[in-house]
Every structure is written in C-alpha cells, then in structure tokens.
Protein 1
Amino acid sequence: MQRRIDIILSWVKAHWRALRPRRSKPVRAPTQRYAPRPRIRLAHWQGIGSAPAGHWAACHPSTERIFKAEVTCPRGHRLTLKGHSISEAGQVHPSVVCRHPGCDFHEFVVLENWARRRAALPTMPMS
C-alpha cells in the first residue's frame, strides 16, 4: 500500500512541477562596462642596497628563476615577486600585493627597463 501512495505522490509532484515551473531570478545586465585597471610603472633601481619606495631592483642571476625581482611599495615595504610571471615588456602577472600589516598597496605593475636588468647589475663593494 505504501508503494502505491509513493507512486501516486511522485506522479502528482511531477504534474504540479510541469504546470507551475519554478521562476528563476531575472539576470541583471551589468551597469558598468569593464575597464581594466591601469598599471603602475616602477622605475629600475640600479644602485647598491635596497630599492627606495616605488622602485624595483634585479635579483641576483642565481636566484632570478625563483624570486624574479625585488619591489618596494610606495610606503617603503620590500616585496619579492616569487609567484609572479614577468613578460619581456616588464608586465607583472598577477597583481602585486603588499603583505605588510596596514598597507593597502595592491596594483598591477610594469617594471621599467626589465629587458635590460642584467646589463646594469651593481657590483658589491669589498670591505
């Protein structure tokens, strides 16, 4: 008897759903067109020591495959581009995020003179 009741209820549910389909929510068209964020250009620091704020410095050639470059955000925090890829034009992908507490630097970055990074490696002075 229970089997017959289950069959009848499933038949009633199927017909009810066919007569009154679920209404889906209307899809809203985007109100704003996509505009890519502009890329921040960072100058190449060729001096000795850490790069000043808003600059980048080349890593040593032996570690370049892992760390790519060292960047200093506009607030002066040092970052390494470990998980990033850099095109020959110097465009960094994905965006660069400063992990320092309280810093809100999160930008798409272009490294100026990226193609000429090895030509100007500074020599470390002997002490």
Protein 2
Amino acid sequence: MSPESRHPFWSSFCAALFALLLFTVISTGKAVENSGLGSDFWEKYDDIADWVSLRLKLTPEQEDKALPLMEKNFELQLNILEDYGFARGKMPKLTREQKEELDAKIIAVRAATRVEMVKILNAEQLEELKKIQQEYHEEFRRRLNKN
C-alpha cells in the first residue's frame, strides 16, 4: 500500500506501533533479532500496518474497517501499560499479582478487538489474527516474566 493511498491516521498509527516495538526492544536491552520477530522483519515490512494488512491479506475495504480497530486496540493496551508504570525505556518491577492482572487486561482488550474483527474478516483471516495476537502475547509474557 502506498503512503498516498492511506487514510491520514495510518502514519500516526504506524508511528505508535513502531514506538511500542521500539519501547519493548529498548526496555529489555535486546536487539530486534532476539525479539521473536526475526532478523528480516524490517526488511520485509516497512511498517506494522502494512505487515498486518499483508499477513491478514486485507482487501482495501477491510483495511478501512480493520485498521481503526487495531489502532484502538493498540492505544488501549498502551494505556494499560502506562497504568502499571511502563514508559519509554522504563519497565517497572511488578509483583506476580500485578503481572497476572496486567496480563488479564491485555487479553481482554485483544479479545474485544477480535469480537469486532469477526464482522470484518473471513474465517481464514480471523485464524491468522488469532496467531498474530498469540505471537505477540507470548512475547509479551516472556518479557514480563523476565522482569
């Protein structure tokens, strides 16, 4: 998808997603190669919105509906992380109870997003979305448990 064909908020959406990934990499002191995304991640996909669109094989009509939901999902998750003291370059020490609570809240946001995406995606795309969410969740839990 060319930048000119994108809805105006995609640039800020992509920047926000990039910032979260960068925050995750910086906060753990690990390189992208060790983050579970693979060393060729940035070579294959120049931004997260394109990556998700390609992976889900979204049509332009689906993108118009799905990407705003993904942006909302992302912002809700960022707000939850901020509530627990996460900030750029800062990963607070959390108790086991706080980690479980945080994890449950993140799962709830992702589940709510999937409920909305059922209206937009076909069965195959929905399964791929579940895989994407699971991959990110596993990485999130791994990093959370290291802390």
Protein 3
Amino acid sequence: MNSLESKLEKNIEIFSEHVYLFKHKEVVEINTKATYNKFINWVLGEFDLYIKNESEFLKVYFPNGRFSIKNFKNENNKEVIEIKVEGKSEKACKDVVKQLNSVFNHVLRFSQLYEIKA
C-alpha cells in the first residue's frame, strides 16, 4: 500500500505544474511611478472578477492563463513596466494582451491630458 501511495504522490507532483503554451512579454518605459500606480489601479478595476495576487507585484489569473505586471528601474535608471501574459489558449492570451494595451493607452492619454492642464 505504501508503494502505491508514493507512486501516486510522484504523479501528483508531475501534473501539478502548469504548462503554458503561449507567452507574451512587453517592457515599456514610463515617466513616473505614478503612471504605474494608475495603470495597476485601472487594471484591478478592469479585471475585478478574476483571482489576483498583489504580494510583490500584480498577478491576475484568468481562465487557462495568467498575467503579471511589475515595476522596476532598468539599467539606465528609468522606470519600467514589465507585462507578461501566459496561457494555454492563444486567443485568450491575445485578448488579454489587447485589453491590457487598451487600458495602458488610456492611462497614458489621461496622464498626458492631466499634465497639459496642470
């Protein structure tokens, strides 16, 4: 009986790992960290019904995939946003990338309008 349990445990470990077939990564320079904060805020609103993890950076799980958004400084000491989308469905990943790009473009337009009025 113990050998059967150990074989089952080994199989469970093998199958518990997620395999993502489609991956998309984008790195974009931004002017200020405030732009990143607005982007995260708007993404949280856009994907409010999905499971999220906001420990070190934002990670959102959608059906058959996930995406993450990080903020850091690059080698030139400029603020950067890194967006990674991974999933099992090419169509789902492309739809999420399109949605994230739309939100990011709205944030940029909003930020530019705000800077012009200030």
Protein 4
Amino acid sequence: MLTEDAEPGWAGIWTLTHAASRAALRLADALPLVDTLDVIYAAADLREAQDKLEWAHPALPARCAAVDLGPLESDEGFTRGRVVLGQLTTAALNRAADLFDADLTIADVLTLADVEAALRRARDKILGAGP
C-alpha cells in the first residue's frame, strides 16, 4: 500500500501529496459539482502543499514516484474515496512530523510548517472536519 511504501522524508511527502491531489481531482470529477466542493478545495490545498515542496526542493518531481491511483471505481463510492484521501494525507502528515526530528535549516522548517498546514486543511475538508 502506498501509505506504507512511500519513502520517508521529503520524497515520501511529495509522493503521497501528489497521489492525494490527483485522487481528489478524480473523486471530484466522479460526482456533481455541488456534492464535491469540499473535495475540490481540498485538492487546491494539496496542490499548494505540493507547490511549496517543489519550490523548496526542485528535484523532487524528477526523482520521486508520481503515483496516480486512477479513476474511482463505481462500486467504491464517494465514501471510500474520502477514506483513501484521508489515509494519503495522514501518511504525508506523519512523514512531515518525522522530519521535525531531523536536522533542518530554517528554510526547511518554514517549508515544512507551510506544507503541514496545507495538508491539515485538506484532510479536514476531506474528512468533513472543516469548512
């Protein structure tokens, strides 16, 4: 499973965030717009996190696994899609938390704080804990 197999550190955060961003857009595309606004906004937060990672570490997209989970199967449903998105964002947040124990530059700490905030916003929207 991707949540367990993604690399640790920056690379794992990027891979999980990329996969979650793609999955959120596919989930939003599977349902009427009115039912998926929170997922669309979560996808924007995930893209923000990914942009911040790429700005701080430009080599990430070239060296990390760019996983796309593919379209949502009709028998999985919207609820299952949200669960998968929640798992991906939680795994990325766990890797971010692990990085705080590493020897980071001030720039890395600031990037990590921004990425973590965007991931938390996305997870809250996906799981229904936020606006």
